[in-house]
Design brief:
Elements: E1 5-10, E2 23-29, H1 35-50, E3 56-59, H2 64-72, E4 77-80, H3 105-114, H4 132-145, E5 152-155, H5 167-180, E6 185-188, H6 194-211, H7 215-222, E7 225-228, H8 233-240, E8 245-249, H9 252-259, E9 263-268, E10 286-288, H10 317-320, H11 324-335
Parallel strand pairs: 1-2, 3-4, 5-6, 5-8, 6-7, 8-9, 9-10
Helix pairs in contact: 1-2, 4-8, 5-6, 5-11
């Protein structure tokens, strides 16, 4: 209980860790462009950390630079975990269990703690602490948009084009939700993804015009659909904590939604869900087209995976084969739990 726990994190993501109980200090590391600038930043951080005389350092998901930084702290006990199944856990003073065993990413992270003798039960989901004032702020934001409950959130962004569901499908999902449920829809994109929000609204308007001749009906449905792409991390978390369900790709907002106890429906395409979706399926179901032979980039014995950026040959069928109605049915089911 008297242990003093410090965290080192990239400054971009530090807000996610704000307010966690038991944390004494958060070191924020700012990544620099250019090799020399980055080396200089690492050297300065090393000097700061060495002055703390840490007894133990844990590196959950090591890179070559973070592993060297952990070693350079001077801590005598070091749990440094390179996640690659064939990678050696360099600079670690303890044996990390489960090396080379296929397991979800969170369980591999927790192996760095288990290496110290701590018992960490499998299957625990992450938790992000939201203050009551933040939850109230998120609710007020949704009320200001005029969105009725229950609210379906749509996470439009992804890390690469082949992980993206067609934007027209998101628009169709929004309209179907508004026809089946009394609530509204909030489509979320990242700070640099304003074009995604724009394209989504264009697709919504096209579908409304094609399917509803009655102008008042179009206006009534359109008034229950909004977009946002300017959230800070804490604001995003506060808003996600107030919606009923988030549907979208395997991305940051999805994992954040899980961590604030909001139901999710995830659309997986080129990557098998096993490693990246360690969550209970009754509250966090996913859609995934099994046994596509085009997923052929995985190492032997690993889950099927495709690493291409743009799919020309197979016409992106891993995502296009996921229909709107299966996603909608999942959303309705978990939103009512």
């Amino acid at each position: 209980p008297q242990a003093e726990i410090d965290l080192l994190v990239m400054d971009t993501w530090a807000p996610v860790l704000a307010g966690l109980p038991g944390i004494h200090h958060i070191w924020k590391f700012s990544s620099k462009s250019g090799k020399l600038s980055r080396l200089e930043a690492l050297a300065k951080m090393t000097l700061k950390l060495r002055k703390e005389n840490y007894d133990c350092v844990i590196n959950f998901h090591a890179s070559p630079s973070s592993a060297k930084l952990a070693w350079a702290t001077g801590a005598k006990c070091r749990s440094i975990h390179f996640h690659g199944h064939s990678d050696r856990n360099k600079y670690s003073t303890v044996t990390i269990p489960g090396k080379g065993t296929l397991k979800p990413i969170i369980e591999r992270d927790m192996d760095a703690i288990r290496a110290l003798g701590a018992h960490v039960p499998a299957g625990r989901s992450p938790q992000l602490l939201i203050q009551p004032s933040e939850a109230s702020e998120g609710l007020r934001y949704l009320q200001k948009l005029g969105l009725p409950m229950p609210i379906l959130g749509l996470s439009l962004g992804s890390s690469r084009p082949t992980k993206s569901w067609p934007i027209e499908r998101f628009a169709s999902l929004a309209l179907e939700w508004c026809q089946r449920e009394p609530g509204g829809v909030l489509a979320i994109a990242g700070p640099n993804e304003g074009q995604l929000s724009h394209n989504f609204l264009l697709a919504v308007d096209d579908l409304l015009f094609a399917n509803f001749r009655d102008t008042p009906t179009r206006a009534q449905i359109r008034g229950r659909i909004a977009t946002a792409h300017d959230f800070s991390l804490r604001k995003l978390a506060s808003v996600l904590s107030q919606i009923s369900v988030l549907a979208g790709h395997d991305s940051g907002p999805k994992h954040m939604a899980v961590a604030v106890n909001t139901a999710t429906v995830t659309l997986f395409g080129p990557e098998d869900p096993f490693e990246w979706h360690p969550y209970p399926l009754e509250r966090h179901p996913y859609c995934f087209i099994e046994n596509l032979p085009c997923r052929k980039d995985a190492a032997p014995g690993m889950p099927a995976w495709c690493g291409i950026q743009i799919c020309h040959v197979e016409e992106h069928k891993c995502m296009r084969l996921i229909g709107v109605h299966p996603v909608l049915n999942h959303c309705q089911k978990v939103a009512r739990r």
